[in-house]
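Can't paste images in this forum, so I'm doing it all in text. The chain is below; anyone willing to post the predicted structure tokens underneath?
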Amino acid sequence: MTTFYIIRHGQTDWNLQGRWQGKADIPLNDTGRAQAQRLAGHLHRRRIRFDAIYSSDLLRAWETATLIADRLNLIPAPLPALREIDVGAWSGLTRDEVITQYHDLWERLHSGEDVPRGGSGETFGQLYDRVVGAVEHLVRERPGQTIALVTHGGPARALLLHAARDKVGVLPRPLHVGNTSLSVVACVANDWHILTVNDMSHLDSAIETAETAETQVDDAERA
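Text version of the structure:
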């Protein structure tokens, strides 16, 4: 069994402001660093042992991975395939600004069409293919290991949907992926299992309040 701990990065100022980030290289804010440190402590107390920790090379994920790896005496490895979806011209915009400036494209997206985000960015299908492809490669390369993946809301959703693709009712709707949330999936003989979804029990009430105060924008588009 190959097990993956899927970790979304900590909070950024753009998360708080409800801005799409995509591939913009935004750092963690103080709350995000505290969230990552709490998760690191949680994993250490539970004696979770990773054979490897891979991270998106975008700063908000890399900072999160470094804080976790330092606590667990590991060295993170960059894996660019774990980057967030490219949102094109929507990067830096709020939901209201996107609706105003790209109304037709927004309507197509919310009618169910998998359009390139921001006109020139990626579709969710493209995101899914690159993320799932990279993780399936890790299954073949590191069978039987326990691996941490520090990534973003969109890639985390893609991996959870991949693990649930032939199963009914195993994922909550809507599928929320919070900052520093922990989701766990496992692959056994090419069969995927979902063990944990969006576990945020390591966060205290003060940090949880800060996160839930974010403007409500789909994580997959602005994480």
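Residues 145 and 170 are 24 Å apart (CA to CA). Residues 124-141 form the longest helix (18 residues).
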